[in-house]
Amino acid sequence: MVLHSQVAVIRFSSWLKMKHHFPDLSRLKKAELLSGIRKEVEMKRIPSRAGYAMEELYRNYKHAVLEGGASQDKIVQIMATVLDRVLLQFEDPFTFPSYHKAIRDPYDYYIFGQNYVRPLLDFRNSYLGNVSVFDEIEGRLKQGENVVLLTNHQTEADPAVMALLLETTHPYLSQSLTYIAGDRVVSDPFCKPFSMGRNLLCVYSKKHINDEPELVDMKRKTNARALKELAILLRCS
After folding, report:
1. Start and end of every Glycerol-3-phosphate O-acyltransferase alpha-helical bundle N-terminal domain (predicted)?
2. Annotated catalytic sites, by residue?
């Protein structure tokens, strides 16, 4: 991960102005949520396998967060928001540039991701260790320096987990992280809405760059652009 303090400008495509599929998210019930998904499949706006995946995502999420004390209504509200954003990706997919700045307006995808992962964390038994290290990191960033953290995150939720653990003690740092993103998190319709709320440098893994011979040249050019963007960010602090 690369941390930086530079402000960038991003152009928004037409999908930002699209209407909600679930118009009154705050009052939606479980049956309405599931029937809404099935209607999208029946209307052939999404593949049947995507509809099945949405229902499976809802069931798995509900099972996980009910143990933490979340209410059924809150779960439905969160999942309706998630599925609404996923459906938009099937209608008009967002294309990530080599360097993507978190989208905070007119729709705040950062808060969207935080709200989804928050109920999955047990804050009573979770804590941020080595706080002094993060104090130093945040201080250096505010002075215009660069800080690079070398790590290997295992799930798409990890950026949100890290930001949630930092948000109380280091709010500036929690929103200033830039992550190195592989192709799945910027191409899978179920992952993309969460990625849209993060600062990302988008690359293709060397391990899989030759999987599709016809795309090798495009992938290499994308990686070269990402390296140039990284160099610019480091120069500008």
Report:
1. 31-94
2. 92
